[in-house]
Design brief:
Order of helices and strands: HHHEEEEEEEEHH
Largest sheet: 6 strands, antiparallel
Strand content: 25-35%
Number of domains: 1
Number of helices: 5
Helix content: 10-25%
Radius of gyration: 17 Å
Shape: globular
Structural class: alpha+beta
Oligomer: single chain
Number of strands: 8
Length: about 210
């Protein structure tokens, strides 16, 4: 698993085990079609476990976070690389905290046990992030504080009101919270899943 990762990363230059971020991570927002086309698998799942490890290779070290998801629904492809027979899959993300050491990668999604996610996955274990366009490949399933209704939110917490929102820049979470009440109603998980299935079928039809 790590050979491919080592080819894409120079640990000696890129890794610093400290509280400072690992540089600036520049990601171009994809369109909905690009996001769906690039994804090897798209699934909805609940975060079951989180673990971090400090990996040493020669004189280089890096922290990885391993997030295990309990798969609830597959919207495109098959289960991603790393899946097991119990319908779970573990995705590998660069960064995290081990003891007093922290490796912070700017733009890397962060997860919590029990949270339900909808993820666009590619090249698990081969890149620093197994999601298409990093934070643009992660969608959070949340509940409205008053009604309890489920809705789709982007990585920064902003409600996803349309697939057109996917190509918008990822603004800071505080700003997203302020503008959320001014926006149209967010997509429900069922509506977003239907749009994904339709788009996946469209882009793969000759």
């Amino acid at each position: 698993m790590f050979r491919a990762l080592l080819r894409s990363l120079s640990f000696a230059c890129a890794v610093a085990l400290a509280t400072a971020p690992l540089g600036a991570t520049s990601v171009t927002p994809p369109t909905f079609t690009q996001l769906t086309r690039r994804a090897e698998a798209i699934f909805r799942g609940e975060v079951a476990t989180l673990r971090t490890e400090l990996i040493t290779r020669g004189e280089s070290r890096a922290i990885f976070t391993y997030v295990t998801f309990r798969i609830q629904e597959i919207l495109k492809g098959t289960v991603p690389a790393g899946a097991s027979a119990d319908h779970t899959v573990t995705l590998e993300f660069l960064g995290g905290t081990v003891g007093e050491l922290t490796m912070d990668v700017a733009g890397m999604p962060r997860f919590s046990v029990g949270q339900t996610e909808l993820l666009f996955v590619e090249k698990n274990g081969q890149h620093i992030c197994p999601l298409v366009a990093m934070m643009f490949g992660r969608y959070r399933i949340q509940r409205h504080a008053t009604t309890g209704a489920e809705f789709i939110a982007r990585d920064n917490g902003a409600p996803l009101t349309s697939t057109d929102d996917i190509a918008l820049p990822m603004v800071a979470a505080a700003f997203a919270a302020r503008v959320a009440p001014l926006r149209a109603a967010a997509l429900t998980p069922a509506a977003f899943s239907a749009l994904i299935r339709d788009e996946a079928a469209r882009v793969h039809t000759p």
